[in-house]
Amino acid sequence: MRVILTVLCFLSYYFCCCFPAAVAVKSAQYHSHSHSHSRPHSYLKAVNVWPKPIKLQWPQPKVTSLSADFTIKGPRNHQHLVAAMDRYLGVIRSEHHMPLVNPDVTISNSNPLEVLLIKVDDLTAILQHGVDESYNLTIHDVTSKAVLSAKTAWGAMRGLETFSQLVWVGGGREQLLIPVGLDIWDSPMFAHRGLMLDTSRNYYGVEDILRTISAMSWNKLNVFHWHITDSHSFPLLLPSDPNLAVRGSYGPFMQYTPADVVRIVRFGLDHGVRVIPEIDSPAHTGSWAGAHPEIVTCAGMFWWPAESEWANRLASEPGSGQLNPLHPKTYQVMKKLIKDLVSLFPDPFYHSGGDEVIPGCWTTDPDIQTFLANYNSTHNETTTNGLSRLLEIFVNSTLPYITSYNKTSIYWEDVLLDSTIRVEDSSVLPPEHTILQTWNGGPLNTKRIVSSGYRVIVSSSDYYYLDCGHGSFPGNDSQYNQPPGTDQGNGGSWCGPFKTWQLIYNYDITYGLTEKEKRLVLGGEVALWSEQADSTVLDSRLWPRASALAESLWSGNRDDSGKKRYAEATDRLNEWRYRMVSRGVRAEPIQPLWCVRNPGMCNTLHASG
Ligand SMILES: *[C@@H]1O[C@H](CO)[C@@H](O)[C@H](O)[C@H]1NC(C)=O
Ligand SMILES: *[C@@H]1O[C@H](CO)[C@@H](O)[C@H](O)[C@H]1NC(C)=O
Ligand SMILES: *[C@@H]1O[C@H](CO)[C@@H](O)[C@H](O)[C@H]1NC(C)=O
Ligand SMILES: *[C@@H]1O[C@H](CO)[C@@H](O)[C@H](O)[C@H]1NC(C)=O
Ligand SMILES: *[C@@H]1O[C@H](CO)[C@@H](O)[C@H](O)[C@H]1NC(C)=O
Ligand SMILES: *[C@@H]1O[C@H](CO)[C@@H](O)[C@H](O)[C@H]1NC(C)=O
Q: Taking 60 as the threshold, does the pLDDT of residue 26 lie above it?
């Protein structure tokens, strides 16, 4: 019943801007109980930009209307900036965002705002890691114009987004309003602000990916890390080796064609979002066996033989298969694949995967068994073990090929930190060509990586994994059949519990690092592994939790005094989530609507125990 009422309430708010009588009375009662509860700075609701800009000044909070002829003027000789300017003009004119809490501001009698002027210093800067994304935005009070200046087109796109979020509908009449006399100086704290999506365990349509990239750009996230393939399916149709997808995808309607990739990459550029592909290898490659059975070990075998120890599993989850580092054809396939990938994806970063190489899978292969026996007879325990040597051979035979295309390769942390199979000869993983992405061990593994001299991208599963907390997916699992009263622990999810937006927001990715080590932290990514997700739940799994990451990596999670600002962020995130929903992304709610309409009334004022 409560659910139905909320839905009704939302619907009526969207479509006729009024509330069902019962709800209106209820909130009126609460208002009378709380009339002494003042709403300081409620005008600040008028500048609800997410992520919050680094610096914003609005000394005399006044707003003006947006002229019916409002326009955006800027350089027309940069195709992606032109696409962004045209798109934002459409958004600004058509969005008609009505804040959940109406800002209490003075409407100035200055002229309506006529134009946003965009100035860009360097239109040649390409979208890549570390490109200057700073911008300044001034909305003048008297001259009826706004000026957005940026070093690059990509910074201009960030400023356009900020501008679009400053517009709302109010003032009694259906008019578009915007703050005037306002100055913003803004630039990101971390250059790499990403979202990883796994499209192998379950497939997502191109439209799902485009919608995700749009929503990323609203949040100033700039890296779409596309975990395209895994053991479960190989949906990418490669020009030089189409059989990988023909035999390895879930079917002809669950593939990405080269034209789809071109469209996604271009859409990313139009939104200032880099697209980094990941073809995970040598593990997580069971799906390659359809096209190339001879190069995949343990493909199609049951992942965890009955009665055996976890150490003797063939894969970390159902769906086994690893590339054989000793088979020459492995490298023929890899080279054709890498060549196709570098021509489809222009970004200078390329993700090679490299996680969870499992001994039991490789040792099912007779050639590998022979190699290991020979290796053992000529080496002893003080040297690299034979299995790690196999990984070194694989990396040493593929990474130089990737770097020959001037690409920097990202690997999951396992290639350095796995307890059994890792690269021990550092000449194989040169830090100048290699970035490691951490997912285990929280701040400790970040520290281990940077103290070894590698740049790091933080995706700690303790904080940033959006799939956690939904139980485990293997069937026939007796842990769910326990006597009543049994402690349910993490509910079967290896990385449970669910990662709340607050947990994500508050995580400091440079925790415990020296100043020198901090400089090797490029940024972070939230990750959605898709064993239990597809397009039906995509938006709500991602949003607004990815927004929490976005703000904490753009302008941080602290206020000017250095105090964590999660309390104040709650109200802003509510409002932002609501605007994202009206823009067409089904972000999940973080509070009852009642809390939003009764600011402060839902807060905790004591340490929760
Ligand atoms: C923004 O303004 C500051 C100070 O006025 C200036 O130093 C900076 O270069 C400007 N940034 C951009 C992107 O124009
Ligand atoms: C090789 O030696 C390691 C210990 O160094 C041992 O665990 C492994 O079983 C040996 N493998 C073979 C194939 O002999
Ligand atoms: C192990 O091998 C290294 C190098 O081959 C050698 O120096 C060392 O003496 C060997 N140790 C043992 C215990 O055999
Ligand atoms: C890596 O490959 C290069 C070139 O083939 C070779 O010279 C080097 O010894 C290899 N390194 C290792 C650790 O295998
Ligand atoms: C790699 O970069 C170098 C130096 O910038 C350039 O000369 C070379 O042509 C590039 N190679 C490729 C394959 O892009
Ligand atoms: C379910 O698991 C039990 C062991 O816990 C096993 O005996 C049984 O065969 C399994 N059933 C199926 C259908 O896999």
A: no
Ligand 1 centroid to residue 10 C-alpha, Å:
41
Structure token pair of residue 208: 């799902």
Three state DSSP letters for 421-445: CCCCCHHHCCCCCEEEEECCCHHHH
Structure tokens at 396: 């040493």
Please tell me the distance from the alpha carbon of residue 130 to that of residue 133, in angstroms, as a whole number.
8
Q: CA 50, CA 44: separation in Å to the nearest integer?
A: 13
Pocket test for ligand 2, best of 365, 379, 385, 419 (most atoms within 8 A of CB): 385
The whole-number pLDDT of residue 40 equals 41
What does the pLDDT read at residue 599? 82
Ligand 4 pocket: which of 395, 396, 398, 402 to mutate (most atoms within 8 A of CB):
396
pLDDT tier at 69, thresholds 50, 70, 90:
very high
Q: What is the pTM assigned to this prediction?
A: 0.92
Euclidean distance between CA atoms 215 and 153, whole angstroms: 19
Domains parsed from the chain with CATH numbers? 1-37 (no CATH), 43-187 (3.30.379.10), 196-472+490-555 (3.20.20.80)
392 lines ligand 4 (CB under 6 A): yes
Q: Residue 397 CA: which ligand 4 atom is closest?
A: 2
